[in-house]
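Supplementary Note 3. Input sequence used for the single-chain structure prediction.
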Amino acid sequence: MATRSLWRGRAKFAAVTTALFGGVAAANVATSDDPSRTLKLYTAVPVRLFRDCVTAASIAFDYEYSLLGLAEDSDERSRVKHEVHLRSARKLQELCFKNGGIYIKLGQHIGQLEYLVPHEYVQTMRECMLNKCPVSSYDQVCEVFKKELGETPDKIFSEFDPVPIASASLAQVHVAQLPDGRKVAVKVQHIHMTDTAAADQATVELIVNTLHWIFPSFDYRWLELDFLVEAKNSERCLDNFWKLSPHIAPYVYAPIVYWSLSTKKLLTMEYIDGAQVNDLKSIRKLGVQPHEVSKLVSQAFAEMMFKHGFVHCDPHAANLLIRPMPSSRKSILGKREPQLVLLDHGLYKDLDFQTRISYASLWKALIFSDAKSIKENSVKLGAGEDLYALFAGILTMRPWNRVIDPAIDHLVIRGGDGDRSELQMYASQYFPQISELLRRLPRVILLMLKTNDCLRSVNNALESSLETFLIIGRISSEAVIEAKLLESKSLLVRLNVWIDEILLDARLFGMQVALWLLQLKRALCWIY
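The predicted structure, written as discrete structure tokens, is reproduced below.
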């Protein structure tokens, strides 16, 4: 009887809630400036929430039921867990594709977390999320063109390929030709994006919280739907390189924007031929060495983070192209210098002076195994005195004993199954502490963590070496030294800074010599 009464009470509550929601929705649709868009939003939220709940429940039940009664270290449990991982990854992939938009970004980010997420998730997301996103039809593309520029693509361009060369979470890219013969890339926002962005932001975290071992370092509130902002970001980025890092500026490029053919939902840019940054075979065909690409990527993003304070925060492989330097010639051995082409400038973050210098100081301390400075700067960035070691571990993907190890290669991840298993174990073991740390950290640092994850994935694909850490150590140290010189005009302070600079150069040179000797030793071991 009590159960029946409770059920009736819940049913009445549900009915009242449904009626109330329906009444509010109807009123808002009727009074909205854009009734069709408001109606889409009100119908999209329940559908997306329902999909999230079903997927989350299905995944949770699969793990609970399938692993029930299996011994912790048994071969049978390992086999079944692999199968559940694979099924769950496919369910999550299907959810991302059905909901689209920011969910695709979620899938892309999961594909970067190879040392925290089970391999089945990483592999599934990588196979489909970077270049195989849902595609808008040509009719939908024409609808966007008519609304934004008043004409269909065939009236604006002499040629326009209706089949996109790439489709991402927010937009897709078509190749076209201007009347004067110049080849361009036209980025067209998916027509549903502005209608569903709010719904996406309101529901996406449910599925993340269900997969409790997934590293939750992604902040979903940044969604940028204005392509004019993206275009301005690309120009500001290049301007920073020429003003603040002229020594590397020729090696970093972004496509030219055609402003007269660009709006909030359309972006027309110079077409660039190049190899995706993780495509080693194509990179070598260009006459470029992958280790040179790894060094260039590390240097470019270190300059952005530690010196410019204006950071491209979505550097996954599909957004980084490599081409030979246009002005360079082949060396005697047929090698050419690489140029890094940055695509998709929709997600940038400004670092204020203090945050930038604290972040640079922290990376300097990480490279040189300075435990005191690691703690000091982690606290400044919001990690707290109790979680600074965990923060250092998340940044480097190394346990604390390796972080403070004075060995020259203490931060290098070998990439073996042992490393991967160890890191996944830590992620699961310290999940409550990780969640608390991410709750504390300011939003800008969460985006730096996301950027860090993407860059780590790119460098792993490029088989990067210890040299990339020396680059980070040098640039972060230079930024700290420059900041000290700016903050004080005292001759004594400046003299002290100059001494620090000499000591830094000596230390970096010593590390470089040690690296050469280490490489020589490995080569000799390989020969014998």
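The chain is about 60% helix and 10% strand. The radius of gyration is 25 Å.
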